[in-house]
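Entry type: protein chain
Record version: 2
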Amino acid sequence: MKSLVLLALAACGDHLGPAAADAARTTDAPNGACSATLTGNVEEVTTSDQLCPSLTPGAGASMGHTMLHFVVASRVLATNLAITIDLGARPTTTVYSAENTPIWTALAIETAPVDGACVFTAGASSVPAGSFALQLDAIDAATGTSHGRLALLMFVLPRTTEQGMQTDCGAGTTESVAIRF
């Protein structure tokens, strides 16, 4: 049996570089589509307009705030990778991180045979928390668009199968996600 495997997405603000001068998408993807790169136990690159984030109003503890929400479809993971970051009441073009953002979450699940699973998780309420660095280059609340880069570090938590075996989530304990939007 494998020991508990933790999946972490590496986020380091030092790798984000300067903000773009205009609102053009900061991606190498064709036609301005957004791109996501997963590295770690899952190796995948996705380019699509559907993974570009949306801006939504907050609820509950985030009431009156703007939420940045990503949905990254995956050919490997059983569920989409969902990422939500609270940008606060007055979002600005700046660097947001796990250190200065009290409400954020990221979650995806990879299924394994016989009801096993690998839970990819990070967030302010997750243990371990993981981390992120978000360089927000442009934001337009009127159109619900934003542009920038996100680096995320997640942990993977293996779920025990119905037969009592720990799920094999791979050799690594971390998963990195890099999104250009």
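Comment: The chain is about 0% helix and 45% strand.
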